[in-house]
Every structure is written in C-alpha cells, then in structure tokens.
Fold this protein.
Amino acid sequence: MKPFTLTLLVFSIWNFSFSQGKIDGFYRGNGNGTVVLGFGYEDSKAYYAGREKVDLTRTLFYVNLYGAYGISENLDAQISIPYLESDDNKALQDISLFLKYRFFKSTTVNGQLQLSFGAGFSTPLSDYPVGDLNDLGQQATIIDARAMIHYQSNSNWFGTLQTGFSFKLEEVPNSLPFVFKIGKASEKWYFDAYYEYQYTFGGEDYLGSPRPQNFREFGVDYHKIGGSLYKPLFSDFGIYLNASYLLSGRNTFIGPSYGFGFVYDF
C-alpha cells in the first residue's frame, strides 16, 4: 500500500478549515498519487459575534475533490476544489494549490524525524456573495507558508506539529495557524486526533462598534478538536470518516461537523 494521508478537506469556510492543517508528514513518493472525493455536513449550534456567544445557527453541506502527487521522494503537490451549500448560497468556493518539501530526515533506532516546509495559495473559483452569516467564505486570496515537524516511531505511532503564516490580500486580515496531531498509520488502519487553532491579526467584529459594513474585514479566531479514521479496502482504494467540533472563537460558528469519503491511490 502506498503512503496515505488524511489532509483531505483542505479548504476554509469563514477562514476555519475542515482540514487538519494545510500539510502533513506523509509523502507519496516519486510518481505516486492520491485522489479523494469527500462529503460533509456542518451543524452549527451557535455563533460568536466577536467573543460574545449568540443564538444563531447554520447548516452547511460540502463536497470536495482533492488530489496529491509525488513529484519526487521529498516533494509533493496538492490541489483541492470544494463545492459548498449553506441555505440559498450554493457555489464552488476557493481552489487551493500547495507544494510540500521535506528538507531534513533523520532515522534512529526508535523511529524517524522529518522537517518540512509548505507553500501555496488559495483563491475564489466563483463570485459567491459576501454579506450575511450564510456566506461561503470571505472572497479571500491567501498566500500560505507552513513549517512542520513530524516524528513517526517504528510502531507507526506519529506526532505532527505545524504552524506558519497566512497572508491575505486586500481587506481580509492575516492569520497565524497552529495544528498538533497524533495518530497511528499502519497497513490496516489509520487514525488520528488533533487540536487546531487560528489567531487573526486585527479585523472587525460582527455586531461590533461601529457595526462593520464589510464582512471581508472580519477577524476569525477559533479552537477546534477532531479526528479521522481511514480503512484501506484494497491495495489502491479505501474509505474514511472524520468528525470535529469547533469549541470557541471569534466571529465564527461553533458546533460539530462530520465527513466521509473515498480514497484512490495510484
């Protein structure tokens, strides 16, 4: 079985991601690739207007097509194209393109340590509206840079830590991401659990003073936990389930999200 990963839903909604970080510590190898078709549902129970919790709810459905390819043993490329529906808003959201490079690898008697760097960007695929709480995004073009430490033991348990900087063009404020993940990647199963945090530099608040006129100027912070489970059914095909819960934040919905999908390796 080729190396696999569950960075499956690499897109943002209100600047919070259904993914577990933009990059991960697994490389596909020269000439190997992965295609993922993912589906999901977000069931938001409340909204943080600024940092004040209010009784606003939202449901959102998504479909995402994700692909990754190993250009060399230490260089992967990936692309993600999401389609979202929230109330009457239905559209392709933001395409994401990313490169990931492993610049250091050290093997010991107990496992392997890797250091990687990633860079990429995302930009809207459609002119979806911006101006209410059912928006599909902030129409942001984002340039991302990520650094990552990944350690995997000989028993296939692993831990990954990544952070970086998201530079957003025009009115959308910049942000700092942080993701910590632990899990196990074996021939028969993959599972992980993660904590994700985003801090935004400045920005306006919903129901702030003065009341914002442009939703693109919102600053979005959040704390989220989640996990994934992947089962290969054949040497080149598998299925996954994932779930997450957005705990708290700023200018963001909170509540659970659920996903499943199909993974094809070639």
About this structure: The first strand starts at residue 12 and ends at 13. Confidence is low (pLDDT under 50) at residues 1-18. The chain is about 0% helix and 65% strand. Residues 190 and 230 are 5 Å apart (CA to CA).
